[in-house]
Amino acid sequence: MEAYTIPTPSMENSLLVGDFLFVSKFHYGTRTPATPLQIPLTHQKIWFTEIPSYLDWIQLPQYRLPGLTKIKNGDVVVFNVPGVAENNFEEADQKKWINYPVDLKMNYIKRCVGIPGDVLEIRDKQVIINGKPMENPELMRYRYQVKATNMLSDRIIEKFNLDPEDYSFQGIDSENMALYSMILTKGNADELKNLPYIKSIDIVPIDAYGESPLFPRYSKLKWTGDNYGALQIPSEGMRISLNDSTIAFYGKLIQEFEYNQNVKIDSGHVFIDGKEIKEYTFKQDYYFMMGDNRHNSLDSRYWGFVPADHIVGKGFFIWLSIDKYGTWFNKIRWSRFFKPIR
Question: For a disulfide at 180, which of 94, 97, 146, 158, Cβ 3.0-4.6 Å?
């Protein structure tokens, strides 16, 4: 078991910013260390400094001990985010980016929506796995535009447990309606819709105000985060023919996460150790992760698949929850103590 905290709203309302949780490493099997030269109880840096807490002089082969179960669709999973860019998002100067060892990459927590071999698609915000709609998390959230006949009071905002990051006032329209952008669960949206001073409430398409570049970076695809795919998630032993399309989807995996040496991708051709290959067989499994806060989550839709060797563990239960916007008497969310993660 290891303790983690939730720093971002990408899993709200299933997990809240300020939740402290235990993550089970024994469910999926504990990984052996890859970077042994590290100060204990640190991650990338020594506490309260910018000094690295490790030396990468020695990198050991990584193995996974037997676990109790395998990752299933819908599991809440902690993993090391794969890409170099995602591990250096706070550093604008790419020359200063650090390519961390696997076990020292940043920890993310998301819901696994696709396991190895699945064909995943998103149609009008609904995740489809192998042709069947996936059960949606109960507290999944989307962005809505709300029109009200009057400005909404603080009491209404508090009633729906909206933090300042969850809503914004957008002004008065030509019909003298107050416009709000709100990130809500379906239950919140239905309840808000029934209030007498709410004129309308509509889901806003994720690309309405601009969207981060999607994975893969392939100009022929006209996908959005609400309408995505279909694509197949690689599994160990899966064999593919290499062409412009499959290289767009899987070339990064072959180059960065399959432990191949001297990989070069050039004009629709893949070379390993100077030899062109026409087909490729994957060496490990991959997963597709998404946040429950579907319109406010940077996840596999934007940076791609999660390799099996990046999996840390399964979200287990919340042992403490602190609301940074709470007052002295309600700073702690007592109702979330020892709440299982689902």
Answer: 146
